[in-house]
Amino acid sequence: MMDAPILRYLFSMKPDSATLGQWRRTHDYEVWTHCQTKNEPPLTLWEAHGAGVVRLPDQDTLMHVIKGGVPHHVEQLFGYWRACDSDIVWFRIVRDDRVHYAMVLGGCPSAYESDKLLWICPSCANVLQQHEIVTGRKGVQRFWRQEGSFIDEFNNPVEHRTCDKCGHVHPPAYRFRQLGKLDSSMTPEVAW
Amino acid sequence: MFAQIEIKEPIDKIIDDWDFLNDRVLSHFSTFRPAGHNIFGLRRRFISPSGMNDPKKGNISSFFELGPKGISEGRHELLGLRVTTAGTPHRVAHNFGYWHLNDKDELYVPIPGRSPDELGHYVVVMGLPRDRETDGFAWYCENCLTLLFDFTIETGQTGLAAFWKGEREAVNRYNADLGLRTCPECNHVNPRGYCWNKAKDTPEEAEARGHW
Fold first, then answer.
1. How do residues A29-43 score in pLDDT, each as one tens digit?
2. Do B67 and A65 touch (CB under 8 A)?
3. Which of A28, B2, B62, B194 is paired with B108 by a 20 to 30 Å CA distance?
4. A173 contacts in chain B (CB < 8 Å)
């Protein structure tokens, strides 16, 4: 007897996938996938450690675990640093002329109680702003609901983005991007 | 943008095991090992559109899930993150000879090599069992799907090491009793079970591995 399962979750990193660019939820995980050409700006992962930041190499094959609580940022993808209670697994796979990415958040839903958005001065590493989102049972949905308001608060007025230690003006923040979709306000030059 | 605050030390000195697919790190996950909130299993296999070949186990392209409407067979999709949801009995033919049931989602990522003759990576991710969460080993009649035998361990309490001991105990008990393998509904005599680790197969288990 062969039949389709009750729930089939398949989130492909291939270019023809219908779920590319979307966060999709399973019981224990939130999964995001993306695919782009080699010519497009890379989605480079950064982590903050102590008083500095570390750039993860844009290797052809990379699987990195962002440990819960470690602030991280992905160039071109979201304009803030995020420190999530939950571990996140990051994949970067280059095959043929395509670069495939995936993020897998979760594994232990009960350990995911809060998420943080923060901005780090690129000149002196001072934390300019930090906001905590208590995610609780709503999980990551609560994060996406509040992400925009914290970004607005950071962007305006410009004083909010100006480092009170060194005077550096941080570029405007932006939301998690729907890459590949029409997004005329967001050129690669704007997305840091 | 962050050049001024980028730490100049080698990344290995800042972040341990920063690339799980690096051969040095990967060898630590050749079975399963917890890291943070998850358990990881990392395998080197030939992975292509035509299937998945394990250097030790051969063709293990087909996986099965058991639902209310019966058995569903699937094949791995390259660069597809597939999830078997918590509670779904599942197995991989010729890889482990029982239906595995657990309380956590399992996520699989088949990553092909950069060329057809290069080994790819097969990644398994599942949440670390906590509290009263369990792993189970079960056998259903291959003829009529009647449950024949199941064995459950509270891996949330006992830790991952107990999984392998439990697996061996479950397989031994099932194989030792012909009555367990004989379906009470249709009288079909089912093949023996076998463990994930092929190196520990008895001759009878090796024969069963070849069968299902």
1. 999 999 999 999 999
2. no
3. B194
4. none
Q: What is the pLDDT of residue A7?
A: 62
pLDDT of residue A1: 44
Closest-CA residue of chain A to B65? A5
What ipTM was assigned to the predicted interfaces of this complex?
Answer: 0.94
Assigned token pair, B53: 């070949």
pLDDT by 10-residue block (mean), chain B, 212 residues: 96 97 95 95 96 95 91 92 95 97 96 95 96 96 97 95 96 98 98 97 98 96
Cα–Cα distance, A23 to A145 (Å, whole number): 13
The minimal CB distance from B104 to the residues A10, A28, A54 is found for: A28
Element (H, E) at A70: none
Mean pLDDT in residue range A132-144: 87
- Whole-number pLDDT of residue A179: 75
HSE of B84, CA atoms in CB hemisphere, 13 A:
27
Dig out the tokens for A64 from the structure. Answer: 């990195």
* Residue A187 φ/ψ, nearest 5 degrees: -85, 160
Helices B161-176 and B203-211: crossing angle, nearest 10°?
90
What is the C-alpha separation between B102 and B84, in angstroms, rounded?
A: 10
* Model pLDDT, residue A190: 74
> Hey, how many other C-beta atoms are within 10 angstroms of the C-beta on A25?
14
Q: Is residue A183 part of a domain?
A: no
Structure tokens at B5: 């605050």
Contacts of B69 in chain A (CB under 8 A): 1, 3-4
What pTM was computed for the model? Answer: 0.94
Report the C-alpha gap between A79 and A100 in whole angstroms: 20
A145 to chain B, minimum CA–CA distance in Å?
Answer: 25
Asked whether the beta carbons of B190 and B149 are under 8 A apart, the reply is: no
Q: Residue B210 is encoded by which pair of tokens?
A: 């070849």
Domain count, chain A: 1
Report the alpha-carbon distance of residue B136 to residue B138 in Å, rounded. 6
Domain coverage including residue A92: 23-161
Beta strands in A44-87 (DSSP E): 45-49, 52-55, 61-66, 72-74, 81-84
| A62 lies in some domain | yes
